[in-house]
Specification:
single chain, alpha+beta, Nucleotidyltransferase, domain 5, Actin, Chain A, domain 4, 4 domains, 6-stranded mixed sheet, 4-stranded mixed sheet, disordered N terminus, binds adenosine monophosphate
Length: 616
């Protein structure tokens, strides 16, 4: 049966349109989709079988732009016109990158150190957003060429540590490239999704994503609960990767050949560097590499390579340790390890990571592709093709539960990003109360009767205890599919109960709008009503507890006190239905005033009784 996705937030029907997943990488970028027939994620490849597009932009004298392999060729010959690693500049000021200024072979403007960086090429200035947009434009047009259809919507991945400014910059770059960026997804989240982690509804997993690329290293610890990916910690080194491996191999060869690095010309260094990368790649599957650098025979065994690489790998393991301690986890807590980035093909890297975590690693997917593949999985979920779930980016209406007096207690306010999670503790009102009715509502009004009831269930089996002692934790979880799971758990006894609802199901755009409008037009009334209901509730609770007190302690009170209390209770009782908040408050104060002296007396008595027989 064909499925149509309905975006309830906008009420629009989602046609079967192509949403692509984009891994916008520091060194390489690529696009993936869910294959329409196999329903599996696949990366888009050009006819030459190449999926990776180097994230390199070249500007020629006329200002025309080339991206990818063709641009890469200019890295050595025209460094000032060839931009690489634009991602490192996203959302950054010159002050942020000055420490690594020598890394950039092109001109990064440094006259205003506080404002966002610009790159100068010839007489023109480009922001990192514009630069990234060139890469995205290229990816878009490639994808359109391969798919033979227009590509407008995309999911783009970013490192987990990207801040809001960097995420926004990435969104803007997408917009500039003519893309509608439906979601910015964390790279480690995407990588986990590519391995199917977190796709099962009840999945609860802790995942370590180890990402070692050409120039950067990231370790992220994620907790997946019911489709929500939470980043527990990130660590890494933004200037550590396969390029360092290559340089170390070059140094090793040069010292063997007794060549002075400083006196070797740029071209020779480049020849060595390319050969080093070739050696490194070959040794991921062979034991010995033999080559020739401008007439000089060079060789490298796997053992030698590993000796060269050990210090780098150890640095990454130290980062893993830091990430684990920041996440307050121990090794045993990690359920899965996901390998990302070309450099994780190095057997020493795999071995070291597996041995550190004491588990085998997930490395069956191409580590260069895994982030893009996961982005495609996310895109497919958003397209509504994945499940017959309804998808929303935000909750259009607030979600909450009914509390005493029929008031709405909001747990997830409207416009919260989803997935979203919230929890709050409640308690029992009566001694020995064994059950609690939990009614879930959606809407903006203060009284639940004006909102929409979504579900109702009973938490039963609360063990007998005095009122106020039970701790009932109610948690709301709206997963990425817009499904709300409400759980209630009594923390002392562990009894729990849960219910699942589709909060927006059946609401049209107009209905959502009307509910919002109502909340505005009734705001004043609602506030007044809430204040009144709160007073009425307070009055009822006070009457209850006073009644209980009297029953237990009649003998302790004088006849006058009893009569005065009874009188104050009656007056308070009478104010409740009348509905005047101030009158209720005055009556509450009066009753408190009368009961305070004997309550204190009783307290003193209780303390002195408790002290008796105890040696101080
Ligand atoms: P990425 O930034 O994820 O594209 O990773 C690129 C890095 O992975 C570069 O440093 C490559 O040299 C490295 N790489 C690619 N293939 C291999 C391989 N087979 N063995 C070792 N390193 C590799």
């Amino acid at each position: 049966m064909a499925k149509i996705g309905i975006n309830i937030a906008t009420g629009s029907l989602q046609q079967q349109e192509m949403i692509v997943g984009i891994d916008l990488g520091t060194t390489n970028s690529l696009v993936a989709i869910i294959h329409p027939e196999s329903k599996k994620p696949v990366v888009l490849k050009e006819f030459d079988g190449n999926a990776l597009v180097p994230s390199v932009i070249h500007f020629d004298d006329t200002g025309s732009v080339t991206v990818g392999d063709n641009a890469r060729e200019f890295l050595i010959t025209e460094p000032q016109n060839t931009i690489f690693s634009a991602k490192r500049l996203m959302g950054k000021s010159y002050n942020d990158v000055r420490e690594h200024a020598s890394y950039f072979t092109y001109k990064v403007i440094d006259d205003d150190k506080e404002s966002l960086v610009k790159v100068q090429v010839g007489t023109k200035f480009y922001s990192p957003i514009e630069l990234s947009s060139f890469i995205l434009k290229e990816l878009k047009s490639r994808a359109e060429h391969i798919l033979k259809t227009q590509v407008v919507k995309a999911v783009i991945t970013v490192p987990a540590y990207f801040n809001d400014a960097q995420r926004q910059a990435t969104r803007d770059a997408g917009k500039l490239a003519g893309l509608d960026v439906l979601r910015i997804v964390n790279e480690p989240t995407a990588a986990s999704l590519a391995y199917g982690l977190g796709l099962k509804k009840d999945d609860i997993k802790t995942v370590a994503v180890y990402d070692l690329g050409g120039g950067t290293f990231d370790i992220s610890i994620l907790r997946i609960t019911n489709g929500i990916f939470e980043v527990l910690s990130t660590n890494g080194d933004t200037y550590l990767g396969g390029d360092d491996f290559d340089r170390a191999i070059v140094d090793y060869w040069m010292s063997q050949l007794e060549l002075n690095k400083e006196s070797v010309d740029k071209k020779t260094t480049q020849v060595f560097r390319l050969l080093a990368e070739e050696a490194k790649k070959q040794l991921s599957s062979a034991d010995l590499f033999e080559g020739n650098a401008e007439g000089r025979p060079v060789s490298l065994s796997k053992k030698e390579l590993e000796e060269v690489l050990i210090p780098f790998v150890e640095r990454t393991i130290q980062c893993c340790k830091n990430a684990m301690s920041d996440a307050h986890l121990s090794i045993n807590d990690i359920d899965e390890i996901v390998m990302v980035g070309g450099s994780t093909r190095v057997p020493l890297v795999k071995r070291s990571v597996a041995s550190f975590f004491g588990k085998s690693v997930n490395d069956s997917l191409n580590p260069d592709e895994v982030v893009a593949l996961g982005a495609a999985v996310q895109a497919d979920i958003l397209a509504g093709n994945n499940k017959d779930f309804l998808l929303l980016d935000i909750t259009p209406l607030s979600l909450g539960i009914e509390t005493m007096g029929g008031l709405m207690d909001v747990l997830i306010p409207r416009n919260s990003k989803i997935p979203s999670k919230a929890g709050r503790q409640y308690t029992t009102q009566r001694d020995g109360q064994s059950g609690m009715r939990i009614s879930v509502f959606q809407g903006e009004r203060d009284l639940v009767k004006d909102n929409r009831k979504l579900a109702e269930f009973n938490l039963t089996g609360i063990p007998a205890m005095p009122a106020g002692l039970a701790k009932v934790e109610i948690s709301f979880l709206v997963n990425a599919d817009g499904i709300l799971v409400v759980k209630a758990k009594e923390l002392r006894s562990g009894v729990e109960q849960s219910v699942e609802v589709k909060p927006q199901y059946g609401l049209t755009d107009e209905q959502v709008e009307k509910m919002l409008l109502d909340s505005i037009t009734h705001a004043k009334d609602d506030m007044r009503t809430r204040a009144l209901v709160e007073s009425q509730t307070e009055a009822k609770i006070l009457l209850d507890t006073t009644q209980q007190f009297l029953e237990k302690n009649t003998s302790f009170l004088s006849a006058e006190e009893l009569a005065a209390t009874q009188h104050a209770m009656n007056s308070l009782q009478n104010t409740i239905p009348a509905g005047n908040k101030d009158e209720i408050q005055t009556a509450i104060e009066k009753l408190n005033e009368i009961s305070r002296p004997y309550a204190e007396r009783l307290m003193d008595h209780a303390i002195s009784t408790a002290m008796k027989g105890k040696k101080v």
